[in-house]
From TrEMBL:
CDD domains: OAT_like. Keywords: Aminotransferase, Pyridoxal phosphate, Transferase. NCBIfam families: PRK06062.1. It comes from the Bacteria. One of its GO terms (cellular component) is cytosol. InterPro entries: Aminotrans_3, Aminotrans_3_PPA_site, PyrdxlP-dep_Trfase, PyrdxlP-dep_Trfase_major, PyrdxlP-dep_Trfase_small. Signal peptide: none annotated. This is Taurine--2-oxoglutarate transaminase.
């Protein structure tokens, strides 16, 4: 029964004992969610929201996909859990399917419980393979929230935990709209970003660098699609210095960019891929590392020094198997690419032309962002970098307006990201864009004509 009292009870129960991530506990009021189906979820008062954030950019297949739900139930009836040192059919099939979709010789899968753990383990593997300590990652990146993963992260979430003790070194990746290299074209940005990376490696000492770890398309920190040639260039630099390339596909993997993996857009084969989120839409927590032959071979005769009680959990793996089958049978990855090309991309560009607050539109598949500015000429951000409180008000008002109109948005700093499930219908995608178009009037009030 959907009633106001259910909402009040759910709110009170949450506030009583739940400690939430990333938050000052006394300043939050999490909305209780009563249910979800496909691209929509709803509260206890019957308000429905079109999910344009795919929860935490993990819900690639939408809420309550019947095949995935059924697979979890079937597995639960058969075997809810099994220790990682046993073999399990769902785990083996999930690994086989992931290897089928992974590029090049990436053929073995180490399962974890999420993206953070995947990066922790990929970095450990790279250090053991190369015997080198340092990991290079981009400013404007997110790689997770445990000790190493937090230090790898190149955004303000790292600052409170940064002890400088994890061997992470940061560099600038390409960002044509706000070029760190004063570039005037994508080609120039690409060339200069690669020169910069090579200089960082030279000055750090190549013999001290185990891996370059990057998001092939930077997610939360900007939806930064790299210029053509950038990832290939990074691959070549890594090869020149015996450095491993780790692609963090936690957000981009499993259809989000219109390909199974984002690196496929540029035919680049990393040494390691980390994944989580879309592998089973987060119905049951799952992540992992996909290892190339060379990395896997290092641990053929020498034990890999790491493990997790729930590595390859059968419920999570059953959900992954069903997700990948459904994605393939329903053409979900192709649909995401089509939406990006024919609905979301053109729709957002049209919206961008109509609103003075939109400085830049960029993305791929169902992975897009509007970068909002006060002045298109100067590109002054609508709210400052890492703004909070009153400084962030324009973005908070925009988000509230989207919610009031029935769309759940994803905002970060001065950007509105557009991240519906990969199988959102064209009709719902268009409806979401209409809502964004209307809500942007709120941002326009702060922008110069
Ligand atoms: C690119 C990237 N890497 C790693 C992570 C961490 O994943 P998790 O929150 O599952 O630990 C995230 C989470 O958003 C991410 O976007």
């Amino acid at each position: 029964m959907l009633t106001d009292s259910s909402t009040a009870a759910a709110r009170a129960a949450d506030r009583a004992h739940v400690f939430h991530s990333w938050s000052a506990q006394g300043h939050i009021d999490p909305m209780p969610v009563a249910g979800g189906s496909g691209s929509t979820f709803w509260d206890y008062e019957g308000n429905h929201y079109l999910d344009f954030s795919s929860q935490f950019v993990n819900l690639n297949i939408g809420h309550g996909h019947p095949r995935v739900v059924e697979a979890i139930c079937r597995q639960a009836r058969k075997l809810c859990t099994v220790a990682p040192h046993f073999a399990n059919d769902q785990r083996s099939e999930a690994a086989w399917l992931i290897a089928q979709h992974a590029p090049g010789d990436l053929d073995k899968v180490f399962f974890t419980n999420g993206g953070t753990e995947s990066n922790e383990h990929a970095v450990r593997m790279a250090r053991l393979v190369t015997g080198r300590p340092k990991i290079l990652t981009g400013y404007r990146s997110y790689h997770g929230s445990t000790h190493t993963a937090m230090h790898l992260t190149g955004d303000p979430r790292r600052w409170p935990s940064d002890t400088g003790t994890a061997g992470a070194v940061h560099f600038f990746g390409p960002y044509p709209y706000r070029s760190a290299f004063h570039a005037e074209s994508e080609a120039q940005e690409c060339e200069r970003a690669l020169e910069h990376l090579e200089q960082v490696i030279t000055l750090e000492g190549p013999q001290t660098v185990a891996a370059v770890l990057l998001e092939p398309v930077v997610g939360t920190n900007g939806l930064l699609v790299p210029p053509a040639g950038y990832l290939r260039g990074v691959r070549e630099i890594c090869d020149r210095y015996g450095i491993l390339l780790i692609a963090d596909e936690v957000m981009t993997g499993f259809g989000r960019t219109g390909r199974w993996f984002a690196v496929d857009h540029w035919d680049v084969v990393p040494d390691l891929i980390t994944f989580a989120k879309g592998v089973n839409s987060g119905y049951v927590p799952l992540g992992g590392v996909i290892l190339s032959e060379r990395v896997a071979a290092r641990f053929h005769d020498t034990p890999y020094p790491g493990g997790l009680t729930y590595s390859g959990h059968p419920l999570a793996c059953a959900a992954a198997v069903a997700t990948m089958h459904a994605m393939r049978d329903e053409g979900i990855v192709e649909h995401a690419a089509w939406l990006g090309e024919h609905v979301i991309g053109p729709g957002l560009r049209k919206i961008g032309e109509a609103h003075p607050s939109v400085g830049d539109v960029r993305g791929l598949g169902v992975f897009w962002a509007l970068e909002l500015v006060r002045d298109r000429r100067t590109r002054e951000m609508l709210v400052p970098f890492a703004a909070t409180g009153a400084q962030a008000a324009p973005m908070a008002e925009l988000a509230a307006d989207c919610r009031r109109r029935g769309l759940w948005p994803f905002t970060h700093f001065n950007r509105l990201h557009v991240l519906p499930p990969c199988n959102v219908s064209a009709e719902d995608a268009r409806r979401g864009l209409e809502i964004i178009d209307e809500a942007l009037d709120v941002a326009d009030r702060y922008a110069a004509e």
